[in-house]
Design a protein that fits this description.
Length: 554
């Protein structure tokens, strides 16, 4: 890709100018670039289509001093002292003198939150030193640590990340340093230009390469994009980006081309990387009875890493506004079983953790902080880190109470190395508001191919032999607006309509998930990301135990 050149700004510093520093006013949105050479510094206003010089000031800034934002001032470091200039007017105010090595000119970065300066001292030395100072006021500046050698970029300044971490660049490496000790936390290998400074905007780290500008994710350090400037090779000392809001950045070609200007670019918008779709948070609402007719929710964790989830049993909330569901279960209890059927966790009130199985400590704080705490203290919740396998969540009423309840599984970890997969819920299907309603979310940027099933007669036959199995279940699929987008009453007879445009019998047979009884229902769908609801009823208002399922067809 090639960045889009918006315009070129003439600057008083001319061919000796160094790396610009760019500031965007958070209130007005105005953007200003500050650029310096050994004896002067200028402020340049950058508009949408053109730029202009606001002010110029003079001083002894050494051979390489990069303007740095400190509050409302722009600070430069010269041999033995700091200079400060008001950003808006250029008015000079002496900042601090003494105690800075410099060796003919230094560069500086400042972390206002930590009140720390990072100064590249003796930059002309083959092994320059990066020093960290704590600044209390003009009279109290204390050396915290110094670092020489690997982790110190020759000729460039440091940059400060949003969490205070320090970024320093050399010709073949970018280092992330601990602000408290100066030790290396992470590094990025590469081929970078001499004397460059990393630039940070909106969790993106920018750096000049041999012939490209690179942008890295500041959290993961993964490469996001790379593109070329319009003047050819960028592999030259002192050419560096100063990146700022909305993807703009600067390239200063002074030393390379004898230019009296720097270029203002608009970074190209990268093509979004498609995110594979996954089944996300899942839930089922049904009428909970006793014995074999309690509500049983099943799900599978697939992947190489444990999946952190919160499982909830909701009842009293359903009876309150805005839901106003009649006969809501007054006090739901929750059990979690693994694939062998063993009980591994339980709860009867989310505000009172039951220690045992995989639950080894109080979870009330975790549940509260996780964003999915139930609204009623009688409702139940469990947080669990589950390895790959099959799991069952069972919802009952305390003291054999009955009523409408909701069983839910929320994914608490964004890591997609493990995912929630094939989901199912078994419950007693009644009529009216007491039918069975299964909800699921498709997450990602691409559609997800799934098969939905409503199973009844199979449950009453061997080997399950479930009493009162629903003899003829029907199935509806609704989107996030509540609109009916597909339906079925018998999987061997496709109902054309909504998102179903052709006969699905052959597809269902080939999926490996064809129901075992012709009276059962199934739908294959390829819906885009969003919220979906599957509703299971009994044909002709019949009632009985049924199973609603969603299988991932990849």
């Amino acid at each position: 890709m090639t960045g889009t050149l918006r315009y070129t700004v003439p600057i008083p510093e001319g061919p000796d100018s160094l790396m610009p520093t760019v500031v965007q006013n958070p209130i007005s949105g105005n953007v200003t670039a500050f650029v310096a050479d050994a004896g002067q510094v200028s402020a340049v206003s950058l508009g949408p289509v053109s730029g202009s010089v606001l002010w110029t000031q003079f001083g002894l800034f050494g051979g390489q001093s990069i303007p740095t934002v400190v509050g409302s001032s722009i600070v430069l470091v010269g041999p033995g002292q700091y200079y400060a200039f008001d950003q808006a007017t250029g008015a000079a105010n002496h900042f601090w003198s003494g105690g800075v090595a410099g060796g003919g000119g230094t560069t500086v970065a400042y972390d206002a939150a930590r009140q720390q300066f990072y100064v590249l001292e003796d930059y002309n030395d083959p092994t320059p030193t990066l020093s960290a100072y704590h600044y209390t006021d003009n009279a109290h500046i204390t050396l915290l640590w110094q670092r020489t050698g690997a982790g110190v970029g020759g000729g460039g300044s440091a940059a400060i990340g949003t969490t205070g971490k320090v970024f320093s660049a050399g010709n073949s490496m970018i280092w992330e340093l601990d602000p408290g000790t100066g030790t290396t936390l992470r590094s990025i290998p590469g081929s970078f230009a001499s004397g460059v400074t990393p630039a940070l905007t909106n969790n993106v780290l920018w750096i000049i390469g041999e012939d490209q500008v690179f942008a890295y994710d500041l959290v993961t350090l993964q490469l996001l994009r790379a593109f070329n400037g319009s003047r050819g090779s960028l592999n030259t000392a002192y050419d560096s980006p100063g990146a700022f809001a909305d993807g703009y950045f600067l390239l200063d070609y002074g030393r390379n081309y004898g230019s009296h200007s720097f270029d203002v670019y608009r970074a190209p918008t990268p093509t979004p990387t498609p995110t594979p779709a996954i089944l996300g948070n899942i839930s089922t609402r049904a009428f909970v009875q006793t014995g074999d007719n309690v509500m049983i929710g099943g799900f599978i964790v697939q992947g190489s890493m444990p999946k952190r989830v919160i499982i909830r049993a909701i009842g009293p909330e359903l009876g309150e506004p805005p839901y106003n569901v009649p006969s809501a279960l007054s006090d739901p209890t929750l059990e979690l079983h693994d694939g062998t059927g063993a009980l591994i966790a339980s709860n009867n009130s989310w505000q009172h953790t039951i220690i045992g199985g995989i639950i080894t400590s109080n979870q009330v704080h975790e549940i509260t902080a996780g964003g999915h705490a139930p609204q009623d203290p009688r409702e139940s919740a469990i947080i669990a880190d589950l390895p790959g396998g099959s799991y069952t969540a069972i919802v009952r009423g305390a003291n054999n109470a009955t009523g409408v309840a909701l069983v839910e599984v929320y994914d608490l970890s964004p890591d997609t190395s493990s995912i929630l997969s094939n989901i199912s819920t078994r419950s007693f299907v009644q009529t009216g508001d007491n039918v069975m309603i299964g909800g699921f979310i498709i997450q990602g940027t691409e559609p997800k191919r799934v098969i939905l099933r409503a199973i009844g007669p199979e449950l009453g036959a061997p080997p399950y032999d479930v009493p009162n199995a629903l003899p003829d279940p029907t199935l509806e699929l609704h989107d996030g607006t509540g609109a009916l987008i597909a339906s079925n009453d018998n999987w061997q007879h496709t109902i054309i309509g909504g998102i179903i445009t052709s006969n699905q019998v052959h597809e269902i047979q080939n999926s490996g998930y064809a129901p075992g009884d012709p009276r059962e229902s199934a739908i294959i769908a390829n819906p885009p990301p969003g919220n979906y609801t599957a509703i299971v009823r009994g044909k002709n208002n019949t009632t009985g135990v049924a199973l609603v399922e969603v299988y991932d067809l990849h």
